[in-house]
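Quick check before the chapter quiz. The format below is the same one you will see on the exam, so make sure you can read both the input and the output lines.
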Amino acid sequence: MRSFTCHHEWSSKRMEKWTAVVSNVEQHDAWCEFFIESRYSIHVFVGKGKVGRFVSIPDWRAACWLNDPNDLSFNKGKLGKIMKNTVDGITVAYALQNMAGFLP
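Here is the expected output.
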């Protein structure tokens, strides 16, 4: 299990922090699967195809192409939008950054 801290500054200038944990990591040739435990449990698949890396979050019916896992700013915005939830999108973006060395 890998623990990490997420944070976000809202438009009201209020800073919010929360902790999340990545667990049950399974690595395969072109993809990996893991769970994020935070405010909710988030089941994540990350893969790599001919045109780039993608993320799929089936329980949220969300998927998109990813930029570099360390590009926190881009990934937070993109994931928050497709998940229709800012906090959970940010949580997944931080998890991707935390898992960057293990992703395909």
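If your answer matched, good. The mean pLDDT is 94.
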